[in-house]
Design brief:
six-stranded mixed beta sheet, alpha+beta, 7 helices, Deoxyribonuclease I, Chain A
Length: 262
């Protein structure tokens, strides 16, 4: 079975319903994983997405914050969710395809502004979230699994616009990168995007604060697609749809794609 998957922090699925519809119509991924939906599940505009050929959805939501959803052309069943760090947030949902492939959709906490858990509770929550992910992967090694989402960490030097300037900025600090690395290693996860695009600067997020995000190009690669080790040779055609960051009233994230042959 072959399918194309995309992941996108949409920053409000109701506010940007039209952008989701545009992506589905123009790019046609078989599966679209959304984060930061900011909506209760029953308020997600499922009818429009079904009309576009995506009748299946598994999701977790809450009013105004967080929220994750998997939209699919392919049959997908709800495979549960986990509340890492005990935050009580809608930050994870899993869906299982008919062939048994498990898709995990994550929205990892951003971590606030200061990279110091002693003065910034949110940064501590982010580190705890990643540590619990690591422990979970160690206890139950993923098989035939794909992990996607806004992980809010840009791990590599070329995943940010300026490595040295970003070392003390939340999302690229050494402690965050180390937490991501140990979680990835614990689950024997393969970074799909960087396996396909091993060289060069690559971003999926550009701040709203920049008056000209495209010209400044001060981006970060915060959005990821990982595959379990047994799927290490089953993916190809990774890309970031940078153009979507320039659509009218956009999310500050761009969709990330990969194709799987399973």
């Amino acid at each position: 079975m072959a399918f194309t998957l995309a992941t996108w922090n949409i920053n409000s699925v109701r506010l940007r319903e039209g952008l989701v519809a545009r992506l589905l119509e123009e790019e046609g991924p078989d599966i679209l994983c959304l984060q930061e939906c900011k909506s209760p599940v029953d308020k997600i505009p499922t009818e429009r997405f079904a009309e576009l050929g995506y009748p299946y959805m598994v999701a977790r939501g809450q009013k105004g914050y967080n929220g994750v959803a998997i939209l699919s052309r392919l049959p997908v069943e709800d495979a549960g969710d986990l509340d890492f760090a005990g935050l009580g947030h809608a930050r994870h949902v899993a869906g299982r395809l008919e062939d048994g492939t498990l898709i995990h959709n994550f929205y990892v906490p951003a971590g606030g502004d200061k990279p110091d858990r002693e003065v910034n509770e949110k940064f501590g929550q982010k580190l705890d979230y990643m540590a619990e992910l690591r422990d979970w992967f160690r206890d139950s090694r993923p098989e035939r699994a794909i992990l996607v989402g806004d992980l809010n960490i840009a791990p590599r030097e070329d995943d940010v616009w300026d490595h040295k300037k970003m070392l003390k900025v939340v999302s690229h600090t050494p402690v965050e990168v180390d937490h991501m690395r140990t979680a990835q290693e614990a689950g024997d996860w393969v970074d799909v995007t960087r396996s396909d695009i091993p060289q060069g600067r690559l971003y999926s997020w550009w701040s709203y604060r920049s008056p000209d995000w495209d010209a400044a190009d001060k981006g970060r690669r915060l959005d990821h697609i990982w595959a379990s080790g047994d799927l290490a040779h089953a993916f190809h055609s990774s890309r970031v749809l940078r153009a979507a960051r320039g659509w009218e009233k956009p999310s500050d994230h761009a969709p990330v794609f990969a194709t799987f042959d399973l």
